[in-house]
Known about the structure:
Elements lengths: L1 H13 L2 H17 L3 H18 L2 H17 L3 H18 L2 H17 L3 H18 L2 H27 L1
Helix pairs in contact: 1-2, 2-3, 2-4, 3-4, 4-5, 5-6, 6-7, 6-8, 7-8
Amino acid sequence: MNTFVGALLEFQKLDSLYGIASAMANIALLYQLHGKNIEARAQYEQALSIFDDLENQAGITQTLTNLGLICQEEQEWEQAHDHFEQALAGYRELGDVHGEAIALVNLARLCALRGDAARAESFASDARALSEARGFDDQLARLEGFEAMVADRECAARRSDDEQ
């Protein structure tokens, strides 16, 4: 953390907006990894504002993805969905196919968590096709985890129906 705070201070001295936004995003990620979502969100939102002012689509898109993950964790479903949809559009605009696959997996997981199986499967299918075509093994592994989560939820729902 101290390294990124030091970098932030240096970028502030240099008046490097891109450097400031990048350092804030890195600090936010550290907060996020330590479960400090309030602090992470504040840093991400500041970084997002700067990336937006700079019209830095890559920075905007990555920050939206991370904000979506925080919102998902906090069960702020609509906000998470909006962030993931905006990130998907940003990755497509950039031509970042790997980012697109990440966004599709994120949307699939979010829809599954919300109980929207049809949309979850649609996003997962798109993510799988893209990941298989491009060899994105990391996203295929995430999809396997998603599919296991969906199967567990379906089993639990059937058990609940059987008990009633």
